[in-house]
Amino acid sequence: MYSSKEERTKKLSDAIKTIIECIGEDPKRQGLLKTPDRCAQALLFFSKGYEESVEQIVNGAIFEEDHDEMVIVKNIDVFSICEHHLVPFTGKISIGYIPNRRVLGLSKLARIAEMFSRRLQLQERLTKQIAVSLQEILKPQGVAVVMEATHLCMVMRGVEKPGSSTTTSVMLGVFREQAKTREEFLTLIKN
């Protein structure tokens, strides 16, 4: 591991310069002179989730509350990098949970989704990581997470199918065990 951000940026920049050369371009061409550094900084931003933890994000924002009805934050925009091709996938996540006398500050749901999305990812893993982390920190009656995303690895290469999207879901607790609860969540996130 590299100890400083400067060391990581330099190593990434050198690697990107090599990539530019390998695809047949001249990294000394005017338009590409600063590209390795810009790209290195962008990659570090795209992967900043590795520098964060759920505990840091939650930061004590769990509150005892006599509430046992569904809490939903929907249409959270996320951007991630596919770990198989290192190209982006973008989408929306909806998160729901039924408290067991503990609620989380609403913005924390979006921040947890953001943290996990800012890593090299698979959509399936991303969806599960969000759900499991909420189950662990809140111990609610249940957690539901649904994500719909477009993957540039399917749009720009491979099968080349613009307009395609992928949906993943993870249902834990009562959302998994009770069809009526699951249906209510899925209906609410559609409207």
Give an overview in words.
The protein is of the alpha+beta class and 191 residues long. The protein contains eight helices and seven strands; from the N terminus they run αααββββαβαβαβαα. A five-stranded mixed β-sheet has the order 5-2-3-6-7, with helices on both faces. The chain has a two-stranded antiparallel sheet with strand order 1-4. The radius of gyration is 20 Å and the shape is elongated. The termini are far apart.
- Largest sheet, order of strands side by side? 5-2-3-6-7
Helix coverage percent: 40-55%
- Rg, rounded, reads 20 Å
Q: What overall form do the CA principal axes indicate?
A: elongated
Measured distance between first and last alpha carbons: 46 Å
How much of the sequence lies in strands comes to: 25-35%
Mean pLDDT: 95
Largest sheet: 5 strands, mixed
The DSSP helix count reads 8
Structural class: alpha+beta
Keywords, please?
191 residues; alpha+beta; 5-stranded mixed β-sheet; two-stranded antiparallel ribbon; 8 helices; 7 strands; elongated; nucleotide-binding; GTP_CycHdrlase_I_CS; hydrolase; GTP-CH-I_N
Give me the secondary-structure topology.
Elements: H1 5-22, H2 35-46, H3 54-58, E1 62-64, E2 71-82, E3 88-98, E4 102-104, H4 106-117, E5 120-121, H5 123-138, E6 142-151, H6 152-155, E7 166-173, H7 174-177, H8 179-190
Helix pairs in contact: 1-2, 4-5
EC number: 3.5.4.16
Pathway: Cofactor biosynthesis; 7,8-dihydroneopterin triphosphate biosynthesis; 7,8-dihydroneopterin triphosphate from GTP: step 1/1
GO cellular component, one term: cytoplasm
